[in-house]
Amino acid sequence: MKKQPVSVKEQDSAIRAKSFEEVVLGFSEENALEEASRCIQCKEPKCISGCPVGINIKGFIKKITEKDYDGAYFTIREKNNFPSICGRVCPAEYQCRRVCVFTKKGEPFASKEAINIHFLERFVGDHGAKKSLQVKADNDAKLSKMKVAVVGSGPAGLCCAGELARRGIKVVIFEGLHKTGGVLRYGIPPFRLPRNILDSEINSLKKLGVEINTNYIVGKAKTIDELFKEGYSAIFLGLGAGIPSFMGIPGENLCNIYSANEFLTRVNLMSAEKFPEYHTPVTIGKHIVVIGGGNTAMDAARVAIRLQNMNGIKPDTTIVYRRTEVEMPARRLEIEHAKEEGVKFDLLVKPEEFVGDEKGFVKKMRASRCKLGEPDASGRRRPEVIPNSSFEVDCDEAVVAIGLGANKILTSVTPELTTDKYGDVTVNPETMATSIKGVFAGGDIVGGEGTVIEAMGMAKRASVAIVDYLLKL
Ligand SMILES: Cc1cc2nc3c(=O)[nH]c(=O)nc-3n(C[C@H](O)[C@H](O)[C@H](O)COP(=O)(O)OP(=O)(O)OC[C@H]3O[C@@H](n4cnc5c(N)ncnc54)[C@H](O)[C@@H]3O)c2cc1C
Ligand code: SF4
Question: Are strands 24-26 and 9-10 parallel, antiparallel or unpaired?
Answer without folding.
Answer: antiparallel
